Fold this sequence. Notes:
- This protein is α/β, with parallel strands linked by helices.
- The chain has 2 domains: 105 residues, Elongation Factor Tu (Ef-tu), domain 3; 116 residues, Nucleotide-binding domain of ferredoxin-NADP reductase (FNR) module (Rossmann fold, 3-Layer(aba) Sandwich).
- Helix content is 17%, strand content 34%.
- The protein is built from 4 helices and 14 strands.
- α3 runs parallel beside α4.
- The longest helix has 14 residues.
- 35% of the residues are buried.
- It binds flavin-adenine dinucleotide.
- Flavin-adenine dinucleotide binds next to β5, β7, α1 and β14.
Amino acid sequence: MSDATFTRESIRHEPAARELRVVRTERLTSTITRITLGGEALAGFAAHGPEDHVKLVFPAPPGQRILRDYTPAVFDEAAQELSLDFVVHGDEGPATRFAAGARPGDPLVVAGPRGSRLPPREARRYVLIADEASLPAMSRWIAAVRGRAEVVAFVQSESSDVLDYPLPRGDGIQVTRIPTGADAALAAVEEVAIDEHTYVWAAGEATGLIPLRRALRRQRGLAKDRAKVDGYWRRGVAGMDHHAPLDPEDPED
Ligand SMILES: Cc1cc2nc3c(=O)[nH]c(=O)nc-3n(C[C@H](O)[C@H](O)[C@H](O)COP(=O)(O)OP(=O)(O)OC[C@H]3O[C@@H](n4cnc5c(N)ncnc54)[C@H](O)[C@@H]3O)c2cc1C
């Protein structure tokens, strides 16, 4: 494997909290609902990186903050509309509760994104692994690199209609649904060739991704600049902090 480092350019954005209103809602798959927000406050909104995320700010008692991370699935600058895609996984979390009950006119405060990290310029091949929560980010990855790199994408889901989700498609883009869980992710990636031109990105349920991260780092020998594994939520934990180390045994990033 070549030693040349992959570099990812970072762009900072002015901090902003925007008061928006629901314009419409749309069911994309049996488990994912798109909520389109609008408002003049979207002037100046920018999201250039595949993993960009906004923080949804929910009403909280004094002294507390209730924030949840979501990916800008679609930003239509001309229409001043921002669409977020929510996994409706139950009704115990404030974000899911909001999404399940959202009606046109409902208010929502959206903060960020604070910054964007662009895909590594050097990569010619991307191996992407997402679950339903990280599907909007996978979509952004494919849109960002299509035409200049090959994409091998695995979507972890038990929903037979998950690939109805509008991922960019075309030549050089291969998308496969696989079961959820650590074993399925490991098995899928084991079959994939990873060479010096390959970048691997995986995101989803944090605990289930630990074995994949260990396999990529220890067995496949991928350094930090070649692979990113990000926990987007953790089973049994409300409002998980995704900046906390994914793997406490190896808290490198
Ligand atoms: C950078 C980033 C981008 C993200 N982008 C998106 C996105 O675009 N769309 C999206 O749907 N999610 C996205 N997520 C994940 C989302 O922030 C979490 O799923 C969040 O916990 C949802 O908040 P909640 O209020 O619904 O549930 P919480 O109050 O956080 O949790 C309540 C319970 O629900 C469980 N839970 C949380 N999420 C899920 C899930 N997806 N499936 C099953 N059970 C769950 C928790 O384990 C907990 O037991 C992103 C996360 C990060 C870090």
